Amino acid sequence: MWNELAPLVSACVLGLVGSGHCLGMCGGITVALNASAAEEKRLRLSTVYQVFRVVSYALLGAVVGGLGHVFERWTQLPLLPVIGAVLLLMLGLYLMRFWNVLVYLEKVGWRLWSHIAPIQKRFIPVKSYTQAMVVGLLWGLLPCGLVYSALALAASSGDIYMGAATMAAFGLGTMPMMLATGLFSRQLLMTFRKPRVQMLMGIVFVVWGAWQLYSVLGESGHHHHEMPHQTGTLTHIHSE
What we know:
Blueprint: H1 2-17, H2 19-35, H3 42-74, H4 79-95, H5 101-121, H6 129-139, H7 145-155, H8 160-183, H9 187-191, H10 195-239
């Protein structure tokens, strides 16, 4: 039971802890979208496009979960969990401003986003629920190292439904902070952009990524050492 829930819990915690990074990336968009909406509709519109942002993540999770399933059929290497852990490490170092290699990965995503952004602009300012739904769905494609880390976690599930659930859990984890930023003030956004706060979040991600990497490689090594022993046991039984 726990093995099935662990990826979902991890993804949700990743979203919660990484909310500060989300604010740095798209908190300004959240504030701008809410500023253009009528005050009496602000909460409802904000909730709609945040929910559809999560739907967008879930659809991406289903895709990478399916790709992970295909990958698992061709190899026994725990490559996808390792990639997820490495991305967490890279994200932490990026936030701590020690290593900006993640910027290059995000730049690849920005090339795709340059084609999507003009479409999204057609639905801004957001004044209707239909506009909010479209903006939310497209917003989920915004390039972000944190999202890439969550996608690697979803891909490692090797299952379409689990991949979708993992990304949905991640998106739900980011929602409280994103809703709060959009509805209340810019002060929260400025707080999470402070160097000390960014450094603290970076340390959390580095520790988390290192632990994930140790867990994956340690488990892989454990299975690797078990196989010769099991082979020897089978040979012994066969000889008897």
